[in-house]
Write a structure and sequence with these properties.
The chain is α/β, with parallel strands linked by helices and 271 residues long. The protein is 42% helix and 15% strand. It folds into two domains: 205 residues, 2-enoyl-CoA Hydratase, Chain A, domain 1 (Alpha-Beta Complex), CATH 3.90.226; 48 residues. The protein has eleven helices and ten strands.
Length: 271
């Protein structure tokens, strides 16, 4: 597939998706979403890829939905069927069929390298990444109430689980933007670094995951974290036990133990 709205690269067992509309602050539109989904699906299928980074070109990560689309929606008496859940037919659990929720069902860990403004639709998308690292130039927030809107695309469910109820409500009702330091303080990002160190830091973490962790182990861990948000502790513990039994029969488990005893880097295959 030829990409126009993103840059898609692979190296060192890491796939990098760069939103690439810098002249529009990487504003979200259908073409960008289509390309991002295609790239993420490709990375998920590639056995050589152990982690994914998503970042933005230029000064912004993503400034939200393209203003042209917003203007059209406002002039056309509102939103029609644009927010359909397009992943319904691919075997996903209903909780992960949403427009961005399918990212949570991916086995490959996703790291967001938030390099600048990350607002509105871009913010909602970034909430679906597993790890977020922010540049000290990042600005993040819902901004929805300041455009006459509320939360959307899973943000109302994810935000309180990431930053806690009080912080989530404050971000939701004020629509304010927070900088990297504040995002780190409330748990919205796991790390904030100097702007020039953002991609190196994200790549270092991605390479660590891709080379030191079993794809099978990382994928099952991610699955359990998200699926267990919808269940009780007893069910979660049963699933953990059954998964552990299944994984002790895997080649990755055998390789992990062997690599440790031989004091060498593991050579995991995801099997």
């Amino acid at each position: 597939m030829n990409f126009t709205d993103i840059i898609y690269e692979k190296s060192d067992r890491v796939a990098t998706v760069t939103l690439n509309r810098p002249e529009r602050m990487n504003a979200w539109r259908g073409q960008l979403e289509h390309e991002m989904r295609a790239a993420m699906d490709d990375a998920e299928r590639d056995p050589e890829i152990g982690a994914i980074i998503v970042t933005g070109a230029g000064k912004a990560f993503c400034a939200g939905l393209d203003m042209g689309a917003l203007t059209k929606i406002a002039s056309d008496a509102g939103l029609g069927d644009e927010l359909e859940h397009a992943r319904a037919g691919d075997g996903l659990h209903p909780n992960f069929r949403g427009r961005f929720a399918w990212l949570l069902a991916m086995k490959t860990p996703i790291i967001g390298a938030i390099n600048g403004a990350c607002v509105g639709m871009g913010f909602a998308n970034a909430l679906h990444y597993d790890i977020r690292i922010a540049s000290d130039r990042a600005r993040m927030g819902t901004i929805f109430p300041r455009r006459g809107l509320a939360l959307e695309l899973g943000a109302s469910w994810l935000l309180p689980r990431i930053v806690g109820l009080a912080n989530a409500v404050e971000l939701a009702v004020t629509g304010k933007l927070v900088d990297g330091a504040e995002a780190y303080r409330i748990g919205l990002v796991s790390k904030v670094v100097a702007h020039d160190e953002l991609l190196p830091a994200a790549r270092a973490l991605a390479i660590e995951i891709a080379t030191q962790c079993s794809p099978l182990g990382a994928g099952e861990a991610k699955r359990m974290v998200y699926e267990h948000l919808f269940t009780d502790m007893t069910t979660a513990c049963i699933d953990e036990d059954q998964t552990a039994i299944r994984m002790t029969r895997s080649q990755d488990f055998k390789e992990g133990i062997k690599a440790f005893t031989e004091k060498r880097a593991p050579r995991f295959t995801g099997k």
